[in-house]
Amino acid sequence: MDATLLTQYALAGLVIGAIYCLMAVGITFIYSVMRMINWAMGEFYMIGGYVQYLLIADWLGPDRWYLALPLAIAGVGALGMVVQRVLLRPMFAGGIERLDEYATIVTISLTVLFRNLAVVIFGPYQFSPRDYAPPVQLGPLPVNGSRFVAFLGAAALLGLFAWVVRRTWFGLAIRSVAQNRVGALCAGIDLSRIDMLAFGIGVALAGAAGALLAPVFLVYPQSGALSTVKGFEIIVIGGLGSLGGSIVGGLLLGLVESLGSVLISPAFRDVYGFGLLVLILALRPTGLWGERAREA
Amino acid sequence: MRKWIVAAAVAVIATGAAGAGSGWGAAPPVVLGVLTPLSPPGDPAAGQLIVQGAQLGEAYINGVMGGVFGPKTSCPQPATPVRIAVEDDSGTPEKSVAGFRRLVTEEHAVGVFGAFHSSAMLAAAPLADELGVPYISTQASAADITAKHFAAVFRTHPVDPDRAAAWLGFIQAQNWHKIALLAENTDYGIGLAEATKSLIAQRKLAMTLDAVIFDRTSADLTPQLLKIKAEKPDIVLNVGVGTPAYLIIKQAHDIGLFPQTPMLASYDFPVRPEEYWKNLGPTGVWLAFISYFHPRMALTALGTWASVEYAKRFHSTAVYSNLNSFGDAVILAEAMNQACSRDPKRIIAQLERGRFDTWIGTGATFPRAAGVRWHQWSPPLVILQYTRPDETYDQAPILYPPAMKTGAFEPAH
Question: I need a surface site. Which of A37, B127, B297, B301 has the fewest CB within 10 A?
Fold first, then answer.
């Protein structure tokens, strides 16, 4: 196999890996702050795709796709905040004993609800907004314009997210809540507000992935299922709660899938990711950047 | 109070009169089950078309035929209406099995049709044998469906070797030699890849086939397509069903593989213009695809009725999924009339020995033939090509077979 072809596969893997990262960062961010797994992340991804499709196909037109993207992200983020406020806040109000079970039941129920709502509203069909950017040559790899926009968008959003978390007062508050909820409360941080914002931002990242990928992959009621699986694979590879680990895990997964598909067999593409996951768990049970924790 | 009693009595009499006027006997309606994909990961658009066809079949049987055992038969039973019961199999084996069981045990269906995904149909086929209820494949084409010689399973759709013969004939006519085939890892995808490979060997054709199998749930097929592009094939055969079929076209276009290299799709999803052009836009131009119907084909009286009625009811041109589903409903009704029975086992026996009118031909039979031809009747196949955006399939030229050819293959320009 020549070097050009290998570079093409590697680049294709990195492009898709960058987009996987958005989903994984959203999951790990919500987990870090709220200590809960949001099983409905794929459905927020799916909603982001539908909103993007509707905005481009029916309301704004394909020429104003750059407006559709922030609107779709904001829309999914707002929906996430409503969900957190109405359905998840009782977790922290003191009346619920088994927080993990509560969060699991609520978010899995949301999965069923959102998928069925999508079928009721849009029907079981697949949709795709038209490509809104011309093809790009990325080294030896010809890349679809929308996919390149998705890649750049994912990189920009991850950069913005990292900046907010590391360089702003809001980010500092979030990090303090992630480190110690009681300590943060004692320091005067409004935990319920931070939870709501963190959940909104986390699902907005999934919505962003869905919106960015709407012209690349198709949008349909179950389109989020695969991305949820990938997202969880990545956070286990990178280490639960580690943002850096999510990014490295996403890129690694994209690379392994792409190279495995062509060097071994494309029929088992999804198996390579699980193979990597099993290998990492065997060597480092906490994931690449995960931390050991002790529970009383 | 008295007024209410009088009104109720009038309503009861009116209802009775209406019932008498329809000529139906006291027997409950005969239920025909439709088991088809109405949600992903199956191809729900195909399922919707199949359901529409089944509804047309119901209207034809009850309206034109006067129900089963109607006045045009010599059956002693009173004329009985049919009713369609629909189940969603999502194109998945587990839902297909559950749906088939529900149709037979809860709805008391005497025959089932509407299958679109081969894996789903193959999963329910043993159950059809176990329950002794005829199960007709409307659009599932894996060879095993009939090659496994299930007693209760029939098919009115082209089988893998028919499809392989059609596209290899077309490829040979174009003087192409290097074929790449991208197939999903389902019974349909793998079966069609195998059938194509074995036909090349059997006929000793001067062709090479590079078959790449992918996981049906994969959304990104770029690595596989890059591999195919590097091989520089003369043609790419697209063996995806539903979402994967679209992803192959989109992503092949993204990397500059299609339309520079011709692509031939294995089934007729492009005949649904609303979905096809909405999803692909100009990317969809230059695709060649197998279709089982083109309005230039001569229809039987049955087919003409369905075509005209479909246009009236749904304000659109009937496509193969509509017509074949319609045809399957009518075949089951014809078998019941010929056997003068609604007993599923007698329907199976009659399907094996009878001759039936279909939408595209007369005298269709389902003999206990050898191999894949067991209980098999195949309608004709054509290969069409879209050469401009928003074209409808009735405007598309027929490239193959030579007897029906209305245009030559056009490379992208």
Answer: B301
Provide the terminal-to-terminal Cα distance of chain A, rounded to the nearest Å.
54
Report which of residues A232 and B287 the model is more confident about. Answer: B287
Interface contact B232, partner A, CB < 8 A: no
User: Between the CA of residue A39 and those of A195, A228, A253, what are the distances in Å?
Assistant: 17, 8, 20
Q: Which helix (H) or strand (E) holds B316?
A: none
Place of tokens 């309608």: B379
Half-sphere exposure of B398 (CA within 13 A, CB side): 19
For residue B160, pLDDT over 90 is answered with no
CB A292 within 8 A of CB A240: no
Chain B environment of A143 (Cβ under 8 Å): 254-255
What ipTM describes this predicted complex?
0.80
Whether domain B161-291+381-404 has CATH 3.40.1280.10: the reply is no
Place of tokens 């030559």: B408
Residue A12 C-alpha, separation from nearest chain B C-alpha, in angstroms = 7
Instruction: Count residue pairs from A and B with Cβ separation < 8 A.
Output: 107
Q: H/E element holding B77?
A: none
CA separation for the pair B351, B331 (Å, rounded): 8
pTM, 2 dp: 0.80
Interchain CB contact of A13 with B (< 8 Å): yes
Q: Where are the domains of chain A?
A: 22-124+133-223
Domain B9-158+297-373 top-level CATH class: alpha beta
